[in-house]
Design goal:
Elements: E1 2-8, H1 20-23, H2 28-38, E2 42-48, H3 52-62, E3 68-72, H4 81-89, E4 94-98, E5 120-123, H5 128-137
Parallel strand pairs: 1-2, 1-3, 3-4, 4-5
Amino acid sequence: MKKLIIINGPNLNLLGKREPNIYGSLTFTEFFEAIKEKYPNVQLEYFQSNVEGYLIDKLHEVGFSYDGIILNAGAYTHTSIGIGDAIKGIETPVVEVHISNTFSREEFRHQSYISPNAKGVILGFGLQSYDLAVQSFL
């Protein structure tokens, strides 16, 4: 059984309320329950924090024992050299995920400190981006 974790960064706890025209109206908890049901043979966990250091700590914690990490670092994608370095320092492969197409948004969102160290990047497919990331590990 594959052991995967979805790690979400800042403001993703507001999914379902925050800018529904971009992020949709489904909460992440609702989506997570559905994706766990879709993949009963995958041990799927979830972690969210608005704090950069907690995200780095979680990457260190799971980065040598899990089969895969699905990471949506939110705005930290574009600002956090520390998260990029944490991914470089662990063994577990990371798929970078974004709900929106970051290249169709503000220019500062076109840069990622995660992508150079990620197994792959999936963006712009709404919450389905997470589903596609799970499939990439199967």
